[in-house]
Amino acid sequence: QQPVQSPQAVILREGEDAVINCSSSKALYSVHWYRQKHGEAPVFLMILLKGGEQKGHEKISASFNEKKQQSSLYLTASQLSYSGTYFCGTEWKGYNTDKLIFGTGTRLQVFP
Amino acid sequence: DAMVIQNPRYQVTQFGKPVTLSCSQTLNHNVMYWYQQKSSQAPKLLFHYYDKDFNNEADTPDNFQSRRPNTSFCFLDIRSPGLGDAAMYLCATSANRGFSYEQYFGPGTRLTVT
To answer: Nearest-5° angle of CA B7, CA B101, CA B52?
Structure first.
C-alpha cells in the first residue's frame, strides 16, 4: 500500500508557492522527502521523525501530522531549480522492515 | 568526495542474456539497497543488505539476484532479462538501518533490453 501523494502534478511560475501532500494508510515512524530531476537520482531533502515535527530547508519546509498519517511539503517562492518529481518515503510503525516505501510522486514544473 | 558510484550508466542487453550491474560506495555505509524505477513511477525496492545480511522483497522476481562481496561493493545480476525488466536501476546506501537515516542514491544504470 503505497503512500498517495497529491497533487500528481503542479505547474508554477517562478515565485509562486506550492504544497505537496503525502498520505499513508498505515501509522508512520517517519517521513522522508526526496526530489528527483529527470534522468537523475533522487536527492534527499529532509526527514521528519516525530508527529508534529516541522523542518525547514531554505524555502522548502515540511510538516508531519502523525495522527492524520500524513506529511506536507511546502515550497515557497519557487525557483526554476525546484522543478522535478518529489517523492515522500515512509517507514511504517510496527513493521520492522528497515526500508522506505516511496509515494506515488508529484511532478513539479516551474516556468520563468 | 564520498559518493555512490554505479557502472555502467547505460546498459543494453539482449532478451535472455545475463547482465550484471555494479554499485560501489566510499561512504562506508552499512546498508545498501537496489531499486528498480520504471518511467514515471516511484523507485521500487528489490532487496537490501545490512552488512552481509541479505533481505529480499517478497515480490522481487527470482530472475534478480544480488551479491555483496564486501562493504564497498554490491552487484545486481539479472539472469534472463525480459522486455519488462527495462528500467532505471538505482543503488542507494544509508549509514545504518532504521527510520532516521537518509539514503544516498547513485546516478543509476539505465537498462535497455532488445
So the answer is: 55
Among the partner-chain residues A29, A43, A44, the one whose CB lies closest to the CB of B99 is A29
Rg from Cα positions in chain A? 13
Contact flag A42-B43 (C-beta cutoff 8 Å) = yes
CA distance A13 to chain B (A): 23
pLDDT, tens digit (0-9, with 9 covering 90-100), for A67-89: 888 999 999 999 999 999 999 99
Q: What are the beta bridge partners of residue B113?
A: B13
* Measured CA distances, B103 to A46, B11, B79, B95 (Å): 10, 24, 27, 8
Q: How confident is the model at residue B99 (pLDDT cuts 50, 70, 90)?
A: low
- The tally of CA atoms less than 13 A away on the side-chain side of residue B38 is 5
For residues B18-36, b (16+ Cβ closer than 10 Å) or e, as one string? Answer: ebebbbbbeeebbbbbbbb
Q: pLDDT value at position A98?
A: 66
What are the distances in angstroms from CA B44 to CA A17, A62, A81, A103, B34? 29, 23, 25, 10, 8
Weakly modelled stretches of chain A, pLDDT under 50? none
Between the two ends of chain B, the Cα-to-Cα distance in Å is 36
Q: With a CB-CB cutoff of 8 Å, which residues 43-82 of chain A face chain B?
A: 43-44, 47, 49
Distances in whole angstroms, Cα of residue B99 to Cα of each of A33, B42, B65, B80: 13, 19, 25, 34
